[in-house]
């Protein structure tokens, strides 16, 4: 029988299978690397996109913070302006009150009473004066109580000095509150 040597053919088949296996391994490794590169590129792109969005948001937040600061400054200016306007309105409203106050102090003083000192602290008035008698001080206090601009007179000190021959003088110190008049509406009622 003829002898056929199959070893080179088998060896060639093994080499071919090894080359095919090596090609498959290399192609799988290449595809794996390609997919990893694509995933890495996609993730890097997403990170870059998110970073740019974050930078945009930070810029916008900075702009809004500046606007909020400006708004707060404007609100502070507005509050100060309103406070000034309120003070001006109060002064405008109380401007005639001082005239009425001095008029009432002058018209309520009975004969024989003299005011030496007049102090005002807020709505409280302190009057120091002298009268010919204690009865005149009482009349003065009744006049103050009946005044529409003054109320609650309180006598804190009264001293009688002098002799019967020289004439007695009663020195007094009293306090009274200034009353604000209610504005009347067109129908005549208080508002």
At a glance:
The protein is α+β, with helices and mostly antiparallel strands. The protein has two helices and four strands.
Report the structural category.
alpha+beta
CATH architecture of the domain at 89-178: 2-Layer Sandwich
* Tally of helical runs: 2
Strand order across the biggest sheet?
Answer: 1-2-4-3
Q: How many beta strands in the DSSP annotation?
A: 4
- How much beta, percentage-wise? 15-25%
CATH class of the domain at 89-178: Alpha Beta
CATH level-4 homologous superfamily of the domain at 89-178: General secretion pathway protein M, EpsM
End-to-end gap: 141 Å
Task: Report the order of strands and helices.
Answer: HEEHEE
| Radius of gyration over C-alpha positions, nearest whole angstrom | 52 Å
Uncertain runs are 182-191
Would you kindly provide a written description of the structure presented here, covering whatever features stand out?
It is a single chain. The protein is an alpha+beta fold and about 190 residues long. It has a domain at about 90-180: General secretion pathway protein M, EpsM (Gyrase A, domain 2, 2-Layer Sandwich), CATH 3.30.1360. It has helices at about 5-110, 135-145, and strands at about 115-120, 125-130, 150-160, 170-180. The protein has a four-stranded antiparallel sheet with strand order 1-2-4-3, with helices on one face. A hairpin with a 2-residue loop joins strand 1 and strand 2. Residues about 180-190 have low confidence and may be disordered.
């Amino acid at each position: 029988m003829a002898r056929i040597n199959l070893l080179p053919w088998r060896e060639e088949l093994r080499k071919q299978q090894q080359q095919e296996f090596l090609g498959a391994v290399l192609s799988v490794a290449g595809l794996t690397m390609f997919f990893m590169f694509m995933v890495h590129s996609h993730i890097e792109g997403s990170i870059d996109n998110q970073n740019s969005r974050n930078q945009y948001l930070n810029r916008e937040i900075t702009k809004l913070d500046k606007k909020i600061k400006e708004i707060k400054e404007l609100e502070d200016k507005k509050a100060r302006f309103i406070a000034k306007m309120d003070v001006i309105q109060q002064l405008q409203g109380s401007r005639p009150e001082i005239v009425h106050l001095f008029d009432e102090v002058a018209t309520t003083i009975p004969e024989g009473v003299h005011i030496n000192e007049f102090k005002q602290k807020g709505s409280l008035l302190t009057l120091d004066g002298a009268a010919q008698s204690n009865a005149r001080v009482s009349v003065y206090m009744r006049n103050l109580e009946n005044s529409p601009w003054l109320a609650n007179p309180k006598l804190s000190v009264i001293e009688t000095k002098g002799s019967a021959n020289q004439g007695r003088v009663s020195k007094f110190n009293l306090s009274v509150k200034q009353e604000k008049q209610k504005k009347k509406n067109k129908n005549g009622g208080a508002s």
